[in-house]
Amino acid sequence: MRAAILHETGQDKLEVLDDVEAVGFGPGKVRIRVRATGLCHSDISAMNGVLPQPAPFVPGHEGAGEITDVGDGVNGFSQGDRVLLCWLPACGVCPSCKRGQSELCLAGFMNAGTPNFKRPGGDVFGFAGTGTFTEEVVVPAGCAVPIPDDVPFDIAALIGCGVTTGLGAAINTADVAAGSSVAVIGCGGVGISAIQGARLKGAAQIVAVDPVATRREAALKFGATEAVSPDELADAKQRVTAGEGFDYVFEVVGKSATARTAYETTRRGGTLCIVGAGAMDDHLQLNMFELFFDEKRILPSMYGGGDVLTSYERAIALWRAGRIDLEGLITHRVKLAEINEALTQMRTGEALRTCIEI
Q1: Region of 278 on the Ramachandran plot (φ > 0 left; ψ -120 to 50 alpha; else beta)
Q2: Predicted confidence band at 106 (pLDDT cuts at 50, 70, 90)?
Q3: Are 230 and 209 in contact (CB under 8 A)?
Q4: Is 38 helix (H, G, I), strand (E, B) or coil?
């Protein structure tokens, strides 16, 4: 079968090969024919080494498709079922799951160290234990989440990560208050979803911050009340909040520099929500006096900060009701053979989300 592979961490292009085989099928597993997958910035972060991932590997973790085979001991699935892929399935029995924080369950991360594929030259891993830039993937049954017949595969794929992460940051983690002021730094697919979440929660002012003009324009269509470039943020803070700072600031870039800017843009007593996934050696510096004196809440948001299955259902319900726009997030569509074109679209900021049709 075909799959897009990164041979070594640090390479900027993928190679589409047709000699790849999905492995590991057996008890507790399902085999999925991938129909659509989204390109998330986390895929690029894994390619360049910002996020740890063994290589060679197949990127991709926003995927949806059809079950083609069901392993022994798997209940509730049959051939032909339509599913999205959850890259962080909850085990249900660990301390985090028992506390109701299933997004912190580490069971799914254990999958990342086991090869999902093989080639004549050896084993190949799947990013985040999945690897959806391929025609077929074998995953634990917990990674497969049924989707209703009226949800297209491309929409379901987005719900599998970017939409859930952004919406959840605003709704679950920050719990944005009605009438509040919000700034969102980084307006790709996840940032736009955070904007939609803030709008749903009733924020009065939502300032989108991004260096790419097309993304700023898009942010306005999705609910931002204004959009500025990073060097205009200080002026926006002065105009919108009289210099006090925003009630909520979302950092959706994953870098200490933007996190520091976000902290300084948050009002005293306000909330800084860290959504971007950054590198382990990129340290955010804060002094002990400002932490005490400003009483700003710093809330990291992992995968939307809530139960992912509940978040999936909520996203589908909101989409059906016309309360959120998911089709509009997909600005580009490519075939698997054109995956490197999609990478360029992501790196330049041209695309909010590119759907890879497989």
Answers
A1: beta
A2: confident
A3: yes
A4: strand
